[in-house]
Design brief:
1 helix; about 5% helix; mainly beta; elongated; about 450 residues; 37 strands; five-stranded mixed β-sheet
């Protein structure tokens, strides 16, 4: 039984609104595995790439229900002729519900054109020692990828390849991004922002000085225009993320390893010709967000980013960020890869092997002024004695399919009410706690594929 002080403390936290009205709940846990990237083509179809151990097995997982359930659609353990180790994965591009591409090492691209049922290895280059590089698709036909420099003794720098047939074939750009007086070092990041319009972030070196330059081409790589980065990105950690909202307006997010991981967001309003700083943790010399490992934006204002030990959210285009709530955070340490499946839902995968869905506690967007929550989920009461009932109540402005699940603090589902079509009005469902042990629970109600959560304490 709980002491009076403990109950008072729990009741205090139950009465608090969950930060930013957004909660991430675990939906799958694959211990011993590590996620590398996640991408969704719409609100239902998502792909996740990862590996077991240090490359003992690499795999692709697929979800067709917005991230609730996942199945393995590709696996490589290296046990095939002529190859000792599996191809290492880096980044996934889910282009259409049927077409997806994954950047891998050894000069290959992994590709499916039947929605994940079968995968083929597309040879980009015959250099078998090539390392994994980023990939980016503009549409179902046009995209670019990088083949990394394998290092000595082959002193050949990173190469940029393009496709115009959806990844079936790849060709090196006619010229490489380079500027007079500087030796090209490596390609830090890429973005395909239009047909024949590519943007790269390059690291150049001349003796000790280094420079980070954006290289822009509008003719498929024949000629390049250069501009300097407003930040010193010499200590860039991981891959930066580009997001272009139209042909001119875009942002780039990323992390730098300076003492610890620090986040930055920079913006262009002229298609990549010039950049300005929107957010920079290094101004204060400490990390407010923890270093953005990756990010995703629904529109030019609304986005999320995965950081060490959490997920952050912005509603002003990347200028300010606030942490979301993650259920059972003490169980999941490490970074997160995130993806918005719609304006009111998202999925995340951690390097710790767990997969999460974003569950909204009241509404899918922040509420201001006199606006009321659209569905307004309530538990009456929210603190009950073992063996008694509570009631989940929610407003339904339209005929809607409604389902309910109850999670315990370990993320296990202890009660499920299957979907049922409910008429307009106030929906009320009794929840018996006869089979519940004392502790904290999360009641999740799903309405039209959006989930809403409230906490339940059983004494």
């Amino acid at each position: 039984m709980y002491t009076r002080a403990a109950l008072s403390l729990l009741y205090f936290f139950l009465a608090l609104p969950i930060m930013a009205q957004h909660v991430w709940m675990p939906v799958d846990s694959t211990r011993g595995e590590r996620a590398w990237d996640i991408d969704c083509v719409d609100s239902l179809n998502c792909l996740l790439i990862g590996e077991v151990g240090l490359g003992l097995e690499v795999y692709v997982l697929q979800s067709t229900d917005g991230g609730t359930t996942w199945k393995k659609v590709h696996s490589d353990t290296g046990r095939i002729p002529l190859r000792r180790y599996p191809l290492r994965l880096l980044q996934v591009e889910y282009v259409t519900p049927n077409l997806a591409l994954v950047s891998v090492d050894s000069g290959y691209i992994l590709r499916t054109q039947d929605g994940g049922k079968s995968w083929e290895e597309i040879e980009v280059t015959d250099r078998r020692r090539a390392l994994r590089g980023p990939i980016d698709m503009y549409d179902s036909l046009n995209g670019i990828c990088v083949v990394r420099n394998p290092g000595p003794p082959e002193h050949i720098w990173d190469r940029l390849f393009k496709t115009t047939d959806g990844g079936k074939t790849w060709h090196s750009t006619e010229t490489l991004p380079r500027t007079e007086g500087w030796e090209r070092q490596t390609i830090l990041g890429i973005s395909c922002i239009g047909q024949d319009r590519y943007l790269t972030l390059m690291l150049y070196k001349e003796d000790n000085p280094t420079a980070q330059l954006f290289s822009l081409t509008t003719d498929g790589g024949k000629t390049w225009t250069f501009s300097e980065s407003p930040l010193d990105l010499t200590e860039l950690f991981g891959l930066p993320d580009f997001h272009f909202f139209d042909s001119l307006h875009g942002i780039m997010t990323g992390a730098q390893r300076i003492n610890n991981l620090l986040s930055f967001v920079i913006e262009t309003r002229d298609g990549g010709l010039s950049w300005s700083i929107l957010h920079n943790d290094t101004i204060e010399g400490r990390s407010r967000t923890g270093g953005m490992l990756n990010s995703d934006f629904y529109d030019r204002n609304y986005g999320i980013a995965g950081v060490p030990r959490g997920i952050v959210r912005t509603t002003d285009g990347g200028r300010t960020w606030h942490r979301d709530s993650i259920a059972f955070p003490w169980r999941y340490t490490g970074g997160y890869y995130v993806e918005l499946t719609s304006s009111s839902s998202g999925v995340a995968a951690g390097i710790h092997g767990a997969i999460f869905r974003w569950l909204s506690t009241t509404s899918s967007v922040d509420l201001t002024g006199d606006k009321k929550p659209l569905y307004d989920l309530q538990l009456t009461p929210s603190i009950v004695s073992n063996g008694t009932k509570t009631f989940a109540q929610i407003n339904l402005p339209h005929h809607s399919p409604v389902s309910l699940k109850v999670f315990d603090v370990t993320g296990n589902i202890v009660l499920t009410v299957p979907p049922q079509l409910i008429k307009t009005g106030r929906w009320k469902l009794p929840i018996s706690t006869d089979e519940f042990s004392s502790g904290m629970y999360f009641v999740a109600v799903t309405v039209n594929s959006t989930e809403y959560v409230q906490k339940l304490l059983v004494q």
